[in-house]
Amino acid sequence: MNIGNVLFSPNGRIGQQDYWVGILIIIVGNIVGGMIPFLGLIITLGLIYVGVCVYGKRLHDIGKTAWIHGIVWLIQFGLGIVAFVMAGGAVMAALSAGGTEEAGVAAAIAASGSLFLIGGLGFLIWIVYTIWLGVSVGEAGANRFGPPPGAAEPAPAAPAQPSQPAPPQDDNNPTISS
């Protein structure tokens, strides 16, 4: 396994074992990134690219385009917008109802509930998507994304040598016949 290729190259295919190693690195990287204030943000942003490479190559192995990974990101982004709109609506409703301390607490509970519910749905989608890719069997032969993982790359064809004319036959250059 070439870990640099698994994590940083968006081209080709990877098998299930390399995929799970990549996912483990992404998870650990996100945990570590969450513990470090500013550098953690940079690590997390870098892990987005690593995720595109790992998920994309696994999608390639099962014969799918890596753009499917973008669709999952769009769903997650859309769910985030819905969650914040719902939370904002709960807060606005509580504030317009009188603005008392009890209304503020109720608004916070309602907002956190909607954020948790929608956020949990988004997390569940990622878990199912990740497991689906991890257990899917790759295509047996070469596909449009390359040879199967572990297959030897075909050797590049040697350039054709121009045929040389046979030397003229004379007494100084006899031809050996069999």
TrEMBL record:
It holds the Pfam family DUF805. The chain crosses the membrane at residues 20-50, 71-95, 107-135. It comes from the Bacteria. InterPro entries: DUF805. Residues 146-168 have a biased composition (Pro residues). Signal peptide: none annotated. Keywords: Membrane, Transmembrane, Transmembrane helix. Residues 146-178 are annotated as: Disordered. This is DUF805 domain-containing protein.
